[in-house]
Structures are given as C-alpha cells and as structure tokens.
Amino acid sequence: LSQGAKNVRLAVALGVAAIVVYIVYVLMHAMNAP
Amino acid sequence: MQMADHGHGPPKGIARWLTTTNHKDIGTMYLVFSLLMFLIGGLFAFVVRAELFQPGLQLVDPMLFNRMTTMHALVMVFGAVMPATVGLANWMIPMQIGAADMALPRMNLFSFWLLAFAFLLLLSTFFMPGGAPASGWTLYPPLVLQTGEAFPMAIFAIHLMGASSIMGAINVIVTIVNMRAPGMTLLKMPLFSWSWLITAYLLIAVMPVFAGAVTMLLTDYYFHTSFFNAAGGGDPVLYQHVFWFFGHPEVYIMILPAFGIVSEIIPTFSRKPIFGYEAMVYAIASIAFLSFIVWAHHMFTVGMPLAGQLFFMLATMLIAVPTGVKIFNWTATMWRGSVSFEPPMLFALAFLFLFTIGGFSGLMLAIVPVDFQYHDTYFVVAHFHYVLVPGSVFALMGAVYYWLPKWTGHMYDMALAKWHFWLSAVFVNILFFPQHFLGLAGMPRRIPDYAVQFSDWNMISSIGAFGFGLSQLLFVWLIIKCARGGAPATAGVWDWPHGLEWTVPSPAPYHTFEKAPEVH
Q1: DSSP 3-state assignment of B379?
Q2: Which of B16, B62, B99, B393 could form a disulfide with B179 if both were Cys (CB 3.0 to 4.6 A apart)?
C-alpha cells in the first residue's frame, strides 16, 4: 500500500470510530428514553 | 530561493489562504483565528467584569450579561484555546517528527474553514431573534431550551466545530502514526507531539459524545422527545452526566498540549534534557485515562449515591499523582541546569506556579463535602480560570514566544515581550486570586449583581481584568512587529536547541523534510 492509501485507511477507521461513538451514545439513550 | 527552485511556492494574495494545503499556512491561519477569538472572547469578559465592577445593575441587562458569560466561554474554549493548540500542532508536529506535511492536507484545510464558518454562525446568533444562548457554556436543559430562534444555529455551530476538531484529531493521529521519519520511534518523539497524540485520541472519544448530547437537546426542542424533559419522564440530570463525560476530558484537551509545550520550553532554557522523559509520556497517558472516570465531580450536588460520590472524589484525587509527576519532573529538569529567563521560559515558569495553584484548588473542589459548600460559587470560577489562563493560555503564549522566530525568521522585541509577561502575570493574579475569597464568602457565579459585602474584591478583580486585557495589546503589537521584520533568527534560535524543528533554517522554508531526515 502507498503512504497515501495507508493514511486514508487509518483516517477512515478513526472517522468511523467517532461516528460509532456518536451513534452508540444517542441510541443508548434513545433506547432508555421514556 | 528554495521555493522558486521547487517551482511550487505558495500562490500570491488571498488565494494562498483560501486554497493552501500547506501545514504551515494552515497553522498560521489557526493561530491568527485563535488570536482574533481571544480578543473577541476577551471583549465579552470585559463586559462581564465591567458590570461586576460595582454591585447593582449598571451597564447591561441581566439577559445580555448571561449571553456574555455564555459566549465568552464558548468562544474561549472552542474558538481560542483549542484552535491555538491545533495551530501549533499543524506548524510543529510535522517539523518535530520529520514529516513533509500533515497526512491529509485537504482535510486539514477543510477543518479550518469549517471552524471559521462555525464561529461566524455562533457569533451571528447575537443578531437573531431571541439572541445568543444565555445558558452557560454547559448548555444545561431546561434553561438552554429557552433560547430563541438562535437555538438550532448554536447547536449547528457546535456540531460543525466538533466535526472540525475530530478531523483535526484524525489528521494528527495519522500524521504521527504513519509519517514519522525513519528512526523517530514513538519514545524518541518530542513531548509536544506526544501530548498532541494523546489529546487527539481524547478528542475522537469525546467530541461525538458532546455531539450526541446536543443532538438530544435538539430533538427535545423540535421533536418532542423527552430525554431531558422531566414532564415527559426524562431527566435533566442525564444531560449533565452526558455533558461532563465530554466536558471533563475537554478540560484535558485544553491542558495536555500546554503540558507538551512546557516540556519543550523548560529543557531548552535549562540547557538540559527533560528529566524522566518516559515518565512524562506515561503521566500524560494516565491523566488522559483518568479524565474519563471523574466526570461526576462537576455535579456532586445533584444527589448521587454515596458510593458514586466516593468513587468520583477518589478518582479525581488520583489525577494529582501523574500531575505531580509532571510538576516534579519539570522542576527536576531545572535542577542544576543553566537556567536563563527568556520570555518563553518566563511563561513556562509562571505556568508551573500558577497552574499548580489551580491544581490545588481543584483538589479542594474534589472533596465532596467541601464541594457542597463551594459548588457554583466564584471559587470554582477562580479554580478553572487559574488552570486555563495562567495554565493553558500562558503555555500557548510561551509557545508563540518559543517558536515565533522559527515561523517568521525574525527575533522579536525581547524587552516588549518581558513587559507583556510581567504585566500579564501581575494582572492575572489581581484578576483571579480575589475570586477565591469571593467564592469562599459565598458569592454565586453567573450572576450580574451581588451583595454589597462582595464589592471590594469584585472591584479589584475587575481592575485586574482591565489590566490583563489591555496588556494583551502588547502581545498583538509584538507579533505584528515580528512578522514585519527584526533581527534575523538563526536556525537554532536559542542557545540549546533540541529537536528537528531547529535543524531547518529560520523562517522554516515553505516545504520542509521532503526527503525524510535520518534520526539516530
């Protein structure tokens, strides 16, 4: 893999991690919501 | 000229700044943006302290006062301190680790302009029906839900600045993980870069949580959900938990890069390597870890189980251990060093003493029964301003004085810088130290009026505020003067330069390390 491709791969992984944290947090509270 | 030889120097004029993907240009834009926000946020604080100069209501109505405290905090936290650290990261991380640029230069530019747009939006809420948010930067419901038409704009602005921060953090991690020069192992990396690597992970972990919290506010406001609405079976205290799960790590997002800066400055002006390098790295990592398990110390008074109070109290006190390691190591670095007192070192030393005062008042606030007394008083205001102003902001100013010759290629006016330091250091204490007394005597925070027995210390605090604010004009003038000219700076700039950034000429060429340096 080229340096650029490695960079993009890691960036996408971190971005997905951030989005997962967001969704999990909102969903977790949505499921407990009255 | 090196740039001309490469045939791809920066475009001229405004196009350079709109389209640049160069880490140095983007770093400069972040730093200039941050300085602008520092002045705007300072102006809001000026209004607050002017109103509090005397008891009674004289200058602004209470609603505007609340908008001022709220916007002061939002602008200073998200517009001044965080972008300043990102600006330094952009400028210095590639140069410290021997990379040619940040890993994702286009995303880097996008992060910056997203932030600039977010703040345009946030500040424009002043001119919207109902006005800017007035709930405090914590945006607690139900109060925040009384914000008028500007509410979704403010939330959108927060989402945008969060997205910008996350992209900035991703860029830092990818740059450090993938683009270090051969031989630059992680445990050889300068401590500023280390502090930012850990900060970036904190950002990715907690900014989405904040985004989640404000999204839930938005759905409570527009879609009649009841996450935080007691009338619908929800719980406003839930918001406080979610907010502070973000908010406490956020505090460390603002202070860890400052730790990194101080760890660069103190060895240079002690002419000795940092004492306990690895311990410094582990201390930053420990502080970052602990930041996730202390959030409820911001809300001891909401009524939580005793076990919860004990856990959060003890976990909070535990932070003093790695922080103590850092303070000890900085002191030990100076021990038997050949110490000199150039402006960056003056700011680092003031940081050492004054941040420690903020740390100690933090320990006091960590004690549950004591916090019951101090909660929501000026003691808290004094505490976090000590941590953030002579803490973070002094470190950031020290960083500017440390690296400015590298950025501009000129030495700055040392006498003027020392004037700036001494005026700031004196006035910042006149500003914030009396607030401890006010808080202990029971003066509540975020209130535009107060009982007459608080008059004297409030007046003194306001005089300190005006002096501190005006002193910053010297800083602005010094930077402009240095950017325009001055005695040429050498590559090393200081007597005992250490690290790759001092191996390139001053000013740092537009492109550095296109061929990776070999690190031994």
Answers
A1: helix
A2: B99
Quote the CA–CA distance of B208 and B192 in Å, as a whole number. Answer: 25
How confident is the model over B118-170, as pLDDT tens digits? 999 999 999 999 899 999 999 999 999 999 899 999 999 999 999 999 999 99
CB within 8 Å: A10 and B107:
no
One DSSP character per residue, B185-253 reads: -GGGS-HHHHHHHHHHHHHHHHHHHHHHHHHHHHHHHHS---SS-GGGT--HHHHHHHHHHHHHHHHHH
Exposure pattern of B222-258 as b/e (b: 16+ CB <10 Å)?
eeebbbbbeeeebbbebbbbbbbbbbbbbbbbbbbbb
Cβ contact B171:A14 at 8 Å: no
Contact criterion met (CB < 8 Å) for A11 and B171: yes
Residues of B catalogued as catalytic: 72, 101, 137, 164-165, 248, 250, 252, 263, 297-298, 323, 326, 445
- pLDDT tens by residue, B321-367: 999 999 999 999 999 999 999 999 999 999 999 999 999 999 999 99
Backbone angles phi, psi at B499, to 5 degrees: 115, 160
CA–CA separation, B299 and B241 (whole Å): 8
Q: How far is CA B320 from CA B218, B255, B366, B402, in A?
A: 37, 14, 11, 28
Chain B hits for A15, Cβ within 8 Å: 166-167, 170
pTM confidence score = 0.95
Taking the C-alpha atoms of residue B229 and residue B212, their distance in angstroms, rounded to an integer, is 16
Task: Give the mutation candidate from B97, B227, B513 for the A interface (greatest A CB count, under 10 A).
Answer: B227
Q: Which amino acid makes up residue B94?
A: P
Contact at CB, B226 and A3, closer than 8 angstroms: no
**CB proximity B108 to A under 8 Å:** no
CB distance B100 to B181 below 8 Å? no
| Identity of residue B51 | E
**Number of neighbouring beta carbons within 10 Å of residue B520:** 5
Spatial separation of the C-alpha atoms in residues B326 and B195, rounded to whole Å? 12
Dist CA B188 CA B163 (whole Å)? 31
Beta-carbon separation of A7 and B178 below 8 A:
yes
Q: How far apart (Å, rounded) are the C-alpha atoms in residues B299 and A28?
A: 22
Q: Which ipTM score applies to this complex?
A: 0.90
- Name the minimum distance, in Å, from the CA of B412 to any CA of chain A: 38
Which DSSP symbol is given to B274? P
* d(C-alpha B417, C-alpha B413), whole Å: 6
Interface probe for A, chosen from B106, B165, B166, B210 (most Cβ of A below 10 Å), is B166
- DSSP state, residue B342: -
Q: Which of B6-20, B52-66, B288-302, B495-509 has the lowest mean pLDDT?
A: B6-20
Is pLDDT at B2 greater than 60 in this prediction? no
Mean pLDDT of chain B: 95
**CB of B217 less than 8 A from some CB of A:** no
What is the sign of the dihedral through the CA atoms of B143, B146, B148 and B150?
Answer: positive
A10 contacts B173? CB cut-off 8 A: yes
